Structures are given as C-alpha cells and as structure tokens.
Amino acid sequence: MRIMRRLFVVPLANNNHGKTSIVRALVSQGEGKHYVSPHPQKKIRRLVTSSGRIVDAYVFCRSYQETEKSYYGSVAAALDGNDPGWRLRELIVMPSHVTSACPPDTQEMIDVGHSAGFDVIAASVILKKGAATRLTNYQNIWTQNWDERWTIDNPSISLPAGQLDALGRDLWSRISKTITG
C-alpha cells in the first residue's frame, strides 16, 4: 500500500484555445505514444510519471459540455457511465468549457470530485490574443472551492502546434510531480 494524492484535474477553456491539443499532448507524454488524430479516445489510461511510477487514470479528451452533458445529464452520471471504477483511480482529467453558463457544471465537478476524495484542480488555459484575452467568465469559475488553481499561459502564435504540445507535456509534468510529491 502507498499513501497517495488523488487528483481531479479540470482543464478550463472554450473552443479554439488549445485545450484538446494540450490534453492530447498530456496523454502522449504520459503514455509515451504520439497521437496524430485530433484527440485520443476517452478511456482508462496507465500514465507513467517522470519517476517511473504508473498512475491509474481516466482521461476525457473533450470538454464535458461537448460530449458528455447532453448524453448523461450530469457529471456523476458521465463518470459512472464511462468508468464505473473512477472513484478508485488516482487521476481523473475532465475538461470543461468556460462560459457564463458553466459555473454549475464546474461546481458539480468539484462536488463530485470531493465526494470521492479527490483534490480538484482548475487548470485554466489562458489564450492571449492582445486585447481579446477574455477573463470575465473565468472569474465566476475561479471563485469556486477548488483545491488548487493552475494557469496554462497560451500566448497566441501563428503556428501553435509545438507550443500546445509543450504545454501538454508541462501539464503532465506538473500533474505527475503533484501526485508523487
């Protein structure tokens, strides 16, 4: 038996902010595989930390609002419907959109994660496009009772693929250090 920290990580951003690419890179780094499709499938994953420890995870690769909410109706039902053993995992990654309508969804993620003993982390992707950087909808979500708030700074560039891959690898490094720390 080991004493471990269990994380429920919620990458936060709307479409076209790089969230899916960042999660794809996180999974690629954790599995040691390169995914060329738009996104890997949601499923149970065995991710390997930089120290070589295997992390038992379930990773949703698309935002809850895009793929799960209309089908399942709630965060708990989506988790139970996709992975009945999710409560025993060490890591859940469940991305969310950031709109004025999403605070109830993110609060539900926090409540469901806490009810299963997870530390729930907001991992906000901040896309910077000069004056177009929008933080208004984040403010309503950031005030919720997250255990930690991480910021993924995504400056806008013309060819973001390498940058998004690096951000995803960095996010996996942060998660693996937090879990094993």
Describe the structure.
The chain has 7 helices and 6 strands; from the N terminus they run βαββαααβαβαβα. It has helices spanning 19-31, 64-67, 69-72, 75-82, 103-115, 136-142, 161-180; strands spanning 7-12, 43-48, 54-59, 91-93, 119-128, 148-155. The protein has a 6-stranded mixed beta sheet. The two termini are 16 Å apart. With 181 residues, it is an alpha/beta fold. It is globular.
List the topology elements.
Layout: E1 7-12, H1 19-31, E2 43-48, E3 54-59, H2 64-67, H3 69-72, H4 75-82, E4 91-93, H5 103-115, E5 119-128, H6 136-142, E6 148-155, H7 161-180
Parallel strand pairs: 1-4, 1-5, 3-4, 5-6
Antiparallel strand pairs: 2-3
Helix pairs in contact: 1-7
Helix content: 25-40%
Give the overall pLDDT as a whole number. Answer: 89
DSSP strand count: 6
| First-residue to last-residue Cα separation | 16 Å
Largest sheet report: 6 strands, mixed
Order of helices and strands: EHEEHHHEHEHEH
Low-confidence stretches: none
Descriptors:
181 residues, alpha/beta, 6-stranded mixed β-sheet, 7 helices, 6 strands, globular
